[in-house]
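Changelog note: in this version the structure field was regenerated for every chain. One regenerated record is shown below for reference.
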Amino acid sequence: MNIESVREYCLAKKGTTEAFPFDSETLVFKVMEKIYALLPLERQPAQINLKCDPVRAAELRETHDGSILPGYHMNKRHWNTVLIEQVPPQQVWELIDHSYDLVVAKLPKTAREELKGLY
């Protein structure tokens, strides 16, 4: 797995946009203007910050010692940093889906309805 495959996966999600709002090295993915993933392009090993349910975030950190960490420069209760080359690809996809779904669930009803109408 590499950064480009993660980027393509995120962009395939309904309503996703990408931008560099913070600097020229951190690619940010948003759904309906809400961030669900941050992909630092220059950090090694390759990693992605993803939103996560707090209980699940703690469990993931315990079971993936060293490859899923508290979110770098994020609220450590709600965000994880996932070392994408050290976690099985299927789990990375599932964690991206989880982050996206958490953000969509918090959108106002009108935004969720608009999102359903896309594509």
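Spot check on this record: The first helix runs from residue 3 to 11. The chain has four helices and six strands.
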